[in-house]
Design a protein that fits this description.
There is one protein chain. 5% of the residues lie in helices and 51% in strands. The protein has 2 domains: 208 residues, no CATH class; 77 residues, Immunoglobulin-like. The chain contains 2 helices and 21 strands. It is mostly beta strands and 296 residues long. The strands form 5 sheets. Strands 1, 5, 6, 8, 11, 12 and 13 form a 7-stranded antiparallel beta sheet that branches. The radius of gyration is 25 Å and the shape is elongated.
Length: 296
């Protein structure tokens, strides 16, 4: 599977939304280490578990596994049953209490959460490593002899999903890092497909699910969005571009207004400016981004 290392405008906008947390650490360039699992890894009951080591330090961070369940007995509501099926799990390496998976609930009752592309993985999320939180999916048939009936069991947050992301935090030495892994899980919970994964090399800094490259690797025009209304223009930039400036130019190239970029969102008021066509120029050491606007 070949995957292109790109980051789209929507992802950058989401990353800018958490710029405060990034800037508070004094580091503004997320260094993303991305690994394309090629070919994709298929985990089933025959292949056995798969250990994922995000940063290749020979320390397992999470283990994916599929177990076939044959004639397992139990009881529920006073009725005995026999279950046949499969269960898919992800087990974090929690020896030091830090390698954990992202979910919902509390850290002790956590249910793992399938993330969408662009979702934030950071210290503000709920992480846990309990057995109850390791379930990706379970599916099969329960047979209840006393009632002479069977019923299907099909549950789990990742069951039957494609291209969803698992959020993880793990340790490198004494530092906490955040990462993601892209998964498919079959509706029968009998196969897990691991496609790719990534982590933020900068300790304690967030990562977006699906983020493959750091900001240093992205072209300037992909880091800037310019939106206009009749009365103002809003310029959104990634944190590494803070310190640039925005110039409003008339068609003769004259600067009508200058605004410094001191945050990820900067606004230019257009009220009181003569009617006409202008150019908004967002200017940085690495290049400029321009957009024509009409002021009424």
């Amino acid at each position: 599977m070949n995957k292109k290392n790109t980051i789209n405008e929507s992802k950058l906008a989401r990353f800018s939304a958490v710029a405060g947390a990034v800037l508070a650490t004094g580091a503004v360039n997320a260094q993303i280490v991305y690994t394309d699992v090629n070919p994709d890894v298929l985990v089933d009951a025959i292949s056995g578990p798969y250990d994922l080591d995000f940063n290749s330090d020979a320390a397992v961070d999470v283990t994916f596994g599929v177990q076939a369940i044959v004639n397992q007995t139990g009881s529920q509501g006073g009725f005995s049953f026999t279950f046949n099926g499969s269960v898919a799990t992800v087990i974090p390496a929690i020896g030091n209490g830090v390698q954990q998976i992202l979910g919902s609930g509390s850290s002790s009752t956590m249910v793992v959460t399938p993330l969408n592309n662009g979702d934030l993985i950071s210290s503000g999320a709920v992480f846990g490593g309990s057995v109850s939180g390791s379930l990706l999916g379970i599916a099969g048939i329960a047979d209840i002899p006393l009632l002479a009936m069977t019923y299907p069991i099909s549950q789990g947050p990742f069951l039957g999903v494609s291209d969803k992301f698992l959020g993880v935090k793990f340790m490198v030495g004494a530092n906490t890092h955040y990462g993601w892994a892209r998964l498919n899980v079959t509706s029968g919970a009998d196969k897990i497909l691991i496609k790719d994964y990534a982590y933020n090399q900068n300790a304690d800094l967030p990562i977006l699910a699906g983020m493959m490259v750091g900001l240093d690797d992205v072209a300037v025009d992909q880091k800037v969005t310019i939106k206009t209304t009749l009365n103002n223009a809003t310029i959104n930039v990634t944190p590494d571009l803070i310190g640039g400036r925005i110039a409003l130019l008339n068609m003769a190239g004259q600067e009508v207004k200058i605004v410094s970029i001191n945050d990820v969102n900067t606004e230019i008021q257009l009220e009181g400016i003569d009617t006409g066509i202008y150019i908004i120029s967002a200017q940085f050491e690495k290049g400029n981004v321009t957009k024509k606007v009409y002021v009424k």
